[in-house]
């Protein structure tokens, strides 16, 4: 009840972010229910149903990542002076954040169930009732226990991930004036990217014999290609913090002025917070560019089905929203530093110039990286 009261009295922007989480959860729930409908309507194709269910893991993971990012920026779960005296310590606030995440995802799952039943024709009296009866196997009864189990997966996973991400930690005190440690995932990330591209190359040469039937009409893509892309995405997520930290060092090289020094220090401090979402977005956009290149050359699928398009749109939207939310969290964390700089007379133009400089150097590094990964991923399939 406390989580519901805090959610009701939150700022409209916070409510909007929670609503977006619920919308994403509704999309994932609808995909899971459509996969269940396919399994019910085609009992002889059990392996294809399992592969379709596994494919839904990608939008589910993207939605969980977005839900955790929204929970991290929720001001109602941020520790403040005096809250511990009324029983709202860090552990209790973490539990409230997990409960709020579960409520938002459960709301989306319920909307997905109602929409699914409406399109099947089980709920009548509204426009478009039964519009997708053939696609959703309306002639077969829905196993209620299986449907509720699938819909409960996202709220449970998202709430658990939010609780683990926001759990109280005791950070060791660093000596005054010591340099912040460099993120250590860059070499491992590069190695995983190379392994993922090698897997895609091997799978592309084998052809489409081991096709992965995706929801919709995208049935010709080898399963190894998708597995290789997932490995590439994990590698870019691991390498992202190191690349952002390197961008910060690059800005501070060769006699930096106040603006370059400020921009570089912020990138180094926030490398872990924004590096991983930025790496994931790089992987998603590179995969989108590779798919577009395959479609243009005629070697890819002729048409994307509606469910495949919905899953791809969810992954793209959730990863982009996660990056924007991480940038907002970074801004909130350095609000006291910004206020201190303004109090000592720093011009606001310096802060704006530093922000533009950070955005510029990140685009200069990650845009070519996105293009290069997309070209390398599409090369074995187009050749």
TrEMBL record:
<feature type="transmembrane region" description="Helical">
    <location>
        <begin position="186"/>
        <end position="203"/>
    </location>
</feature>
<keyword id="KW-0472">Membrane</keyword>
<feature type="transmembrane region" description="Helical">
    <location>
        <begin position="144"/>
        <end position="166"/>
    </location>
</feature>
<feature type="transmembrane region" description="Helical">
    <location>
        <begin position="93"/>
        <end position="117"/>
    </location>
</feature>
<feature type="transmembrane region" description="Helical">
    <location>
        <begin position="20"/>
        <end position="40"/>
    </location>
</feature>
<feature type="transmembrane region" description="Helical">
    <location>
        <begin position="349"/>
        <end position="374"/>
    </location>
</feature>
<feature type="transmembrane region" description="Helical">
    <location>
        <begin position="223"/>
        <end position="244"/>
    </location>
</feature>
<feature type="transmembrane region" description="Helical">
    <location>
        <begin position="307"/>
        <end position="328"/>
    </location>
</feature>
<feature type="transmembrane region" description="Helical">
    <location>
        <begin position="278"/>
        <end position="295"/>
    </location>
</feature>
<keyword id="KW-0812">Transmembrane</keyword>
<protein>
    <recommendedName>
        <fullName>Integral membrane protein</fullName>
    </recommendedName>
</protein>
<feature type="transmembrane region" description="Helical">
    <location>
        <begin position="52"/>
        <end position="72"/>
    </location>
</feature>
<keyword id="KW-1133">Transmembrane helix</keyword>
